[in-house]
Amino acid sequence: MSNLTFEEMNLSYEIINAVKDMGFEEATPIQSQAIEKVMMGKDIIGQSQTGTGKTAAFGIPCIEMINPDDKRLQAVILSPTRELAIQICEEFRKLLKYKDSIKTLPIYGGQPIDRQIFALKKGIQVIVGTPGRIMDHMRRHTIKMDSVKLVVLDEADEMLDMGFREDIETILEKMPEERQTVLFSATMPPEIIEITKKFQKNPEHIKVARKELTVPNIEQTYFEIKEKTKLEATSRIIDMYNPELSIIFCNTKKRVDDLVEQLQGRGYFAEGLHGDLKQIQRDTVMKKFRNRTIEILVATDVAARGIDVDDVDIVINYDLPQDEEYYVHRIGRTGRAGKTGKAFSFVVGREIYKLRDIMKFTKAKIHLGKLPSLTDIEEAKTNSFIEKIKAVIEENHLSKYINLVEKMMNEDISSIDIAAALLKMNLYDEDSEDIDFEDTFTDTEKMVRVFINIGKNKKVRAKDIVGAIAGESGIPGKSLGHIDIYDDFTFVDVPKKYVKDVLKGMKGKKIKNRKINVERAKNK
Ligand code: ADP
Ligand code: MG
């Protein structure tokens, strides 16, 4: 079945115009199949991957069936997390651009309940919330369900994973009999089937076939590298493409924490997202990512699920995913909404077989790539800098600076020298040396492991180590390799040629106000 345009569906002009303003050209497969059925009042089960537009698939019909003159609650959307509830509400607000008499409200734990009660009194027709907090309001009778016509369970499998089953059942039991129940889920475990049997009437199962899930606008590349060089490879990719936002996937929470440390140590604005964080911490991280206070999000699959941020330029599979389906989920974070994105995967040794499976499963073309050398990165930086210069000249607000240049020229400095000096100051990092990737890093012989007798127990982090070594021995922080921090000690890989500088420079120095001892690691 080919995708429908929104004009082909029986939608109001307000929605058609809103969708146009949102930049949607045509409906996605799940939208093409679900919207009209939900509008007809059918119970459906919608199954498709993350990033396939499920929010609008239920949002559009939900809005179309709301009576704007009735100020009572008419639709309830259940969502697993506060983050998702807010995202759904934002999408609703965009869809409601030309129907602004319909009011929506996110309802989630963590926000003062009084404020929600106050807002609810203003006549809210659609609430989007987490099951726990909605239950709370039901107990207090601040939300009444008797006028509800439509209930949506979004990311139903995720809600069950988070232990919301009982709450969901209680909420559904309190709903009017003749309501419509719509459920979306990426997977269909038996528990979900039970819920649909218990609470839906003759549901129709709409499943978007996997082959429609591969995302064509993503350039996919893999690198065959060693575990030890992943960190350096990540830096190179980030430096080369200079993405505004990127997501890096690791397979475990520990790997996320470690990588975040190492990236922060190298001066990147990175933070981690995984299941051990409390909801409130996850929210904070996501907020920072959205407003670009951090540029790199390091995440596990589960933590990143359902999270929708547009404009992710690059996805890096730091670890190849265990599950082939996750590959599709992960790279779907970039190249959204018609933009082009890039996905990079690191492949270590025999993992190449896993990658072949992924290619077979996704029918994706993943090309073998060569990691950027420092020269490549320098060239990319130079080019983008030259572009910036051209843009500034074009803007033409330069008279103040031209005066300065003329002044310097009167002192017999040539304009070419001035320009060259400015370029040097802006472009070239005196520390960086033009060495080839393979040359430096696949050859572990060129790194020497150094032992420092301080570790986690003294709250030492990678950036403290890098800062201390770079500061005390005057070597470039970026030249340091892997850093392993244990409870009472730390190992750092130092390029052979700098080992003497480091041992000398660190002698008798302090980290975190403690005198430390630095020596070559014994056996390696
Ligand atoms: P899902 O819930 O399936 O993970 P979302 O509803 O979060 O997916 O949508 C993912 C992104 O795709 C959002 O930024 C959304 O605005 C965008 N999107 C949704 N439908 C379309 C469409 N028909 N055309 C282009 N972009 C769309
Ligand atoms: Mg969703």
What is the topology?
Blueprint: H1 13-21, H2 29-39, E1 44-47, H3 54-65, E2 75-78, H4 82-95, E3 104-107, H5 113-120, E4 126-129, H6 131-139, E5 150-153, H7 156-161, H8 165-173, E6 180-185, H9 190-199, E7 204-207, E8 218-224, H10 230-241, E9 246-249, H11 253-265, E10 270-273, H12 279-290, E11 296-299, H13 301-304, E12 314-317, H14 324-331, E13 341-347, H15 351-362, E14 367-368, H16 374-395, H17 399-410, H18 415-427, H19 437-442, E15 447-452, H20 462-473, E16 483-485, E17 490-495, H21 499-506, E18 510-511, E19 514-515, E20 518-520
Helix pairs in contact: 2-3, 3-4, 6-8, 10-16, 11-20, 14-15, 20-21
Description of the structure:
There is one protein chain. By secondary structure, the protein is α/β, with parallel strands linked by helices. The protein is built from 21 helices and 20 strands. Strand 10 (270-273), helix 12 (279-290) and strand 11 (296-299) form a beta-alpha-beta unit. The longest helix is centred in the C-terminal third of the chain and has 22 residues, at 374-395. It is globular. 39% of the residues are buried. Mean pLDDT is 87; it is low at 433-437 and 439-443. Bound molecules: adenosine-5'-diphosphate and magnesium ion. Adenosine-5'-diphosphate binds at residues 24, 27-28, 31, 50-56, 308, 310, 336-337.
